[in-house]
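Subject: mismatched residue count in predicted assembly?

I count 307 residues in my input, but I want to confirm that the predicted structure covers every chain. Input:
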Amino acid sequence: MTRLQSVFHLAAPAPFHFEGTAYSHGWVVLAPNAWDASRATMTRVERLGGGKIALLEITGAGTPRKPAIRIGATHRGRLSGEDGLEIQRRVSRMFRVDERLEDFYAECRARGGGWVKVTAGYGRLLRSPTVFEDVVKIICTTNTQWGGTKRMVSGLVEAYGEPYPGDGMRKAFPAPEAIAAAGLDEFAARVRMGYRAPYVHELAVRVTRGELDMEGFRNKGAPTAELRKQALGIKGIGNYAAATLLMLLGRYDCLAVDSVCREFAKKKYFAGRAPDDAEIHAIYEDWGEWRYLAYWFDLWQDFNGEL
DNA sequence: TTCCAGGGGTAGA
DNA sequence: TCTACCCATGGA
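Triage response: the counts match. Full output below for your records.
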């Protein structure tokens, strides 16, 4: 069967910095995502609800005043109207095109200095098309180095992801059903994620059985504290992971304090003395609902010198 | 060999 | 709510 191509354009909110969004944190290089720096293009295999597998090529488009995201989809067989809408919904979620950052930008402008650069369309930290994928990836970031996270996620995709037809090297992120169908022993032996294996497997089983509604975490009406409590109910999710998940859900009032954060705060704000967590939280307290983004771009500016 | 990483679960206080 | 202890894995 011949490969067909479809192209979609998503309108993005101005200001919108495509590369700054795609490469906003490590997610862009975690399988099945891949980043081609020479073309400023993100590619990813997506398994659609109707069963079709598409290879997506996602790039920035439009103009500064009317920014957009171009999605090139390669697939076998025609896409239905619903398939096309699903692709756009998924990319829209990944790049947070519905999120409003005006108040955050206003706060950055008020602070001045390097913060003004953030208002050029940064601040939308890349996420996954599904909450399930984000939670699995967050669990794979805990108590390991970044190289370990990449290895675990690649192994998971390789072992249980559906291959893109004609190029078995590229696969979609595994459906929870695929993980749940494997026994825990087999799963743990194939993916090698150590003590995290039972957590990820149990999560997949609970989602498959309908005991856990991951997409329900997007509930915009729920208070952050309630979502945090629900997140902490998932095995493998503690304070750091819950704050990271809340960030991916668009709630920035919790700070994800990890070893990177501790080391950064120690050097920049405490003259080499190790602060306790309460002291770290206090640094960004006055950013209110934007605390996480404030920390993230404080770290980013310090690390890169500039955006 | 030993340490530890973008921590978390559990038991016990 | 806090602390101590244990948890697999792989890189340094």
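The first helix of chain A runs from residue 18 to 22. Marking this ticket as 'not a bug'.
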